[in-house]
Amino acid sequence: MALKQISSNKCFGGLQKVFEHDSVELNCKMKFAIYLPPKAETEKCPALYWLSGLTCTEQNFISKSGFHQAASEHGLVVIAPDTSPRGCNIKGEDDSWDFGTGAGFYVDATEDPWKTNYRMYSYVTEELPQLVNANFPVDPQRMSIFGHSMGGHGALICALKNPGKYKSVSAFAPICNPVLCAWGKKAFGGYLGTDQSKWKAYDATHLVKSYPGSQLDILIDQGKDDQFLSDGQLLPDNFIAACTEKKVPVVFRLQEGYDHSYYFIATFITDHIRHHAKYLNA
């Protein structure tokens, strides 16, 4: 599959690049960002996938999080895809900020008119890794995933639905129990239909209850002054309770004074890179 390079910038000895390609899963052109650390010039490196939140593109993380120095030091290739298909000309896709464009929610839609394009789950777990593995110096056996908000939800469900596929997972302010929050109900109702039993397949709190899998240490950072926490959109307590019940290890850090922004992410991103490097470079 042909890759078209959009940009390339040297950063901490490595290269931050953006590519465009025709996606089979999403039936449109997609962009993704990829950081190649200096180590990638001479050997295959682990791959760490970042999933962004509502309204974001591949640009937010690479321009605001400050992840590059830690990724360079630990020798991690970091990949950040867009958050939804773009320009599919579906009626209503640009009507609201929390559904449609920029809000793919990392599910495979089953409902018309979304099911032809809105297949972000399969894109993130299958198509994009295959593309990256075929075109860049990464070790397919060493892969991890993390994300923010809607992308934190995405990271958790990708890891929980695929035991053993990812060496580690972490999240910033993830939407932990989407079947019970307004964002999740809107997105899942639109993409997956009215049968709420089908929603549970993309809900981290429900998935962890039946997680059969290999050891998975989860790291979550949550800002205590996050408006979406107090609004009941994130519901981390439900996820923590489910993890505790299933004896799935989770480190949950409630960070005093921090909000939902990239200032919060930038503050703790090095901790997350280190968390993943521990497993990816083991």
UniProtKB/TrEMBL annotation:
Under catalytic activity, the entry for this protein gives: S-formylglutathione + H2O = formate + glutathione + H(+)
Does the keyword field hold Nucleotidyltransferase? no
Which keywords does this chain's UniProt record carry?
Cytoplasm, Hydrolase, Serine esterase
The EC number of this protein is 3.1.2.12
Residues forming the catalytic site: 149, 226, 260
Superkingdom of source: Eukaryota
Q: Which residues form a coiled coil?
A: none
Q: How is this protein annotated for GO cellular component?
A: cytosol
Q: Which GO terms describe its molecular function?
A: carboxylic ester hydrolase activity; identical protein binding; S-formylglutathione hydrolase activity
Where in the cell? Cytoplasm
Extent of the signal sequence: none
GO biological processes: formaldehyde catabolic process
Q: What is its main location?
A: cytoplasm
What family classification does the UniProt entry report for this protein? Belongs to the esterase D family.
Function field = Serine hydrolase involved in the detoxification of formaldehyde.
Q: NCBIfam families this protein is in? A: fghA_ester_D
Name by which UniProt lists this protein: S-formylglutathione hydrolase
